[in-house]
Amino acid sequence: MKGLGLARRGEEVSILCLGAHSDDIEIGAGGTILSLIASGVKLNVHWCVLSAGGQRSAEARASAKSFLEGSNASTVDVADFEDSYFPAHSRSIKHWLIDLRSRINPDVVFTHSRFDAHQDHREVNQLTWNVFRDHLVLEYEIPKWDGDLGQPNAYVPLAAKVLERKIELLHEHFGTQRSKDWFDRETFVGLARLRGMECRAPEHFAEAFTLRKANIF
Length: 217
Fold this sequence. Notes:
Elements: E1 12-21, H1 24-38, E2 42-51, H2 55-67, E3 73-78, H3 90-103, E4 108-112, H4 119-131, E5 136-140, E6 154-158, H5 160-173, H6 185-199, E7 205-210
């Protein structure tokens, strides 16, 4: 499967990463970010977590720092919108994103999936499309109890060592999540292996995204 070549070694690419909670970006697109940095792309990242208070705020900042090590430039924003109640705070979140848009113009936006079963994730997706209408948007996936994984159509193959590094950082930084029965190596490897099979990834692993709209030329 031939890639589109979104970014190549030495080229500068700016990305916006949006996550409702402190581990969402890492789970959904962490391997992609690590791969881009390792490939020599000059990556400029604006990393935004919309709900992280107390210990989870510290986790979010420490994790972002580790995942973005080696990037060309990075900015981390952590907001404190109420967890699990994003639909009720839609107006405030939209204003927050509009202010963000006035300051940055990313080449790519990573955000939650439209059909994610978590209400906070869905709200972030809807507002992303509402606010960042002229940008390339890639929707990442989060495995969870709800069984809401879809049929993605865009893939980033991962080297085995990149996947292992992603899992290592997830377990290093998110102590609040380790007690959850799904937050383990088997879940992350299993999903990456499935997506790697779907795109015939050279080392058998991949992260997958939904690409709903794009200009080819």
